[in-house]
Amino acid sequence: MDAAASSDAPSVEIDDIQSGALRPRPVPYVGRFFFLRVDDRQAGRALLRRLLPAIDAGLPSADPSQGAWAAVAFTYQGLRALGVPQESLDSFPIPFRQGMAARAAVIGDVGESDPAQWEPPFGTPDVHIAVSALAPDAASLEKALERERAALRETPGVEVIWQQEVQQLPTGRTSFGFRDGISHPSIEGVGIPGSNPHEVPLKAGEFILGYPDETGNLPPMPRPEVLGRNGTYLAVRKLHTKVAAWRQYLRANTSSPEEEALLGAKMIGRWPSGAPLTLSPEHDDAELAADPRRVNDFQYREDDDRGFKCPAGAHIRRVNPRDANIIGVARMHRIIRRGTSYGPPLPEGVLEDDGADRGLVGVFICAHLDRQFEFIKSEWVNDGNFIGFPGEKDPVAGHHGGTGSVTIPGKPVRRRLQNLPSFVVTRGGEYCFLPGLRALRWLSELEN
What we know:
The protein starts with 18 loop residues before the first helix and ends with a helix. The protein has 448 residues and is α+β, with helices and mostly antiparallel strands. The longest helix is centred in the first third of the chain and has 16 residues, at 138-153. Helix 2 packs antiparallel against helix 15. The protein contains 15 helices and 10 strands. The protein is 25% helix and 18% strand.
């Protein structure tokens, strides 16, 4: 019997969980992210009361690609600005209280990605509330945003200090040219099927506070219980992609378009269509990629243990090793990833940078910022010891600075690429707390 349906699984209070925590984003999508500064705590609470009707909860029974949903989350400084009691603030975990900028060395935001280089207002005490809205089309998005604009117009004392439009690119792929958003974990007691049929559902406490996690324990939860229960943590990041540098590197290290496509796939772990190398190692397979029952139906240990198909250091294998032989337990470090593209695509075939800002707004969801998000960034993305390649980093998302390397197993000999530049630059990031619906009402009704 599927563990997700087991009678022993705790009942997850779906109706109290903001949709952004568990519902996959619509495909196609358009959206907008906002950061707000609260200059008056009473105004901040009034804004929450006006936003509550617009914040969808739980999982819809209808097609999730229809309609729009909004979500609202808070930084540590934002909770302070709303007047959350110090005793409650002190009950949040250290990474959240410190903020992402203070954790830059831990997660590899150095060099070009150092917080000193971030886009304002990222990393400053002014970022208090993060609001997002996603929809399958522009008309639905505008309808959702009008409710948010009306709430802001009626609430002086809260200012919009940053916003970013996102949308699916015309190709349906990321700026690097690869399909995204394929893998989604199965979560016990939630009812959303995971994308990998081999994956045993993970405990709800890995993603939502108030439920046992993979250790069998309850994750530490902010106090009082009404504030913490059914909440989760978000690592929100604006990531600029150096598409021209990516194309130049592939071109310089291959001798034909076919080799170029294969090298890119080896570094990502999938072909541009989304077909995984583990299932289609020699060529792209659009038919396989279009089949949701097959596109994520694979493991590494039984299908490709030595990495001859998908290298152990490939991006998708690093951030989700599945059943691969690694140092550690992969299930302890799963997160939910939400990626949305921003900026114009670099035209096909162009090898020179056009100066446009393009990339990904990534939202990474977990109940343990340190054990999940920060561990993946420090140990899996920016280190290679766990797979037996000391000194190597994620070939796509790692910080290289022109000195990186990546090993690609092969027969009769393996290939080792040198002098990798950094292809992804952090333009900003924040740790946020996404409360449940009861917690939002509690925050909106705080008294001085």
